[in-house]
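Structure in, sequence out. Go:
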């Protein structure tokens, strides 16, 4: 495992982090708590020390599983979680005020719930689970973050940026009042490279790269025959002809790279870690096999320039979250 500093914090976190959405049990189906716990413990054994969860993942179930493992672990594990929008709308909608989404008291109450679920006294990183740049001048988020730090409930604070909207965070990064941003970044969505990443480097803001495998597209395992259980988030994400679109895009990508599908997850993860702005990448991993494969990626280093140049040609402007 390799480690990077999380922006201006003093956290030395693993390049491979653990995205804990999939272990919440309500949107990513087909897993089990026992399997998820085993995978998380194995990842920690392999040097992983950063876990990203959220109060909304399984109504706290993900936090509870994470807390169980963190309390068992012998070493220092950094835990990030998130305050869900009070109106339960992901992403944040234009024109809806922060008083309906992140009132000051609500930020504090949600943090207390997360602390209880995790079974810890302090959250290493507390994030707002959505963001709307229309809120930049309001004091709810500012006061909330200030109080979390003052009281010792959170060591660092940040935001999780709306799907495919990296530029929506530019103003809040410029305020200097947050420590991190979490953003979708992968071979298909390279948008953060244009403005967000240079600004994050300039302002020393930690970057958490989420959805590095595009919800499974970049595993090379999605095609027209792939089926998901009713109620699984992926059944909606890959609805209609989207699986066909993905298969065609991935086939072209593999052809350009001259590799087979089995190599694609490693390449996709190394793509994220090849950018100097990225502090950590947080794929989900609910199996021992995936935990071991993913945790081996940092040791392989950044991708060669010629491979990155090939991948640059495969950016794909679309939003499957709609």
């Amino acid at each position: 495992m390799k480690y990077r500093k999380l922006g201006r914090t003093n956290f030395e976190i693993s390049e491979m982090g653990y995205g804990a959405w999939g272990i919440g049990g309500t949107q990513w189906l087909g897993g089990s708590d026992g399997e998820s716990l085993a995978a998380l413990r194995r990842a920690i054994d392999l040097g992983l020390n950063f876990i990203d969860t959220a109060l909304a993942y399984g109504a706290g179930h993900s936090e509870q599983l994470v807390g169980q493992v963190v309390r068992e672990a012998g070493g220092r594990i950094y835990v990030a979680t998130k305050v869900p929008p009070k109106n339960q709308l992901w992403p944040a909608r234009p024109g809806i005020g922060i008083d309906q989404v992140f009132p000051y008291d609500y930020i504090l109450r949600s943090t207390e719930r997360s602390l209880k679920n995790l079974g810890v006294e302090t959250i290493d990183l507390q994030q707002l689970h959505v963001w709307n740049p229309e809120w930049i001048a309001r004091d709810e988020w500012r006061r909330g973050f200030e109080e979390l730090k003052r009281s010792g409930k959170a060591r660092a604070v940040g935001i999780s940026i709306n799907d495919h909207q990296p530029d929506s965070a530019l103003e809040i990064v410029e305020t200097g009042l947050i420590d991190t941003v979490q953003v979708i970044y992968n071979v298909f969505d390279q948008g953060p490279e244009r403005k967000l990443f240079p600004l994050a480097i300039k302002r020393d803001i930690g970057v958490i790269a989420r959805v590095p495998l595009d919800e499974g597209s970049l595993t090379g395992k999605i095609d027209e025959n792939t089926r998901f259980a009713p109620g699984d988030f992926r059944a909606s994400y890959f609805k209609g002809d989207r699986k066909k679109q993905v298969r065609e895009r991935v086939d072209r990508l593999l052809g350009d790279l001259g590799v087979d599908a089995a190599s694609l997850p490693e390449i996709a993860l190394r793509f994220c870690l090849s950018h100097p702005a990225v502090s950590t990448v947080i794929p989900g991993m609910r199996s021992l096999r995936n935990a071991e494969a993913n945790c081996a990626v940092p040791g392989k280093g950044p991708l060669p320039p010629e491979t990155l140049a090939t991948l640059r040609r495969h950016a794909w402007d679309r939003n499957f979250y709609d």
